Amino acid sequence: MISNIGIPGLILVLVLALIIFGPKKLPELGRAVGQTLKEFKSSTKDLILDEDEKSEK
Description:
The chain is mainly α.
């Protein structure tokens, strides 16, 4: 889905985010999104490892 946006669409989204949230809030939002993705990735990795351990027993 994201691959269909293209460069012009990505620029438009970034400009709209800058207008809506302002330059001071944008880095905070980026950090929050990054931490959320990092935690989600970690959680899914833990779930997969738990499932693998259960299937080995």
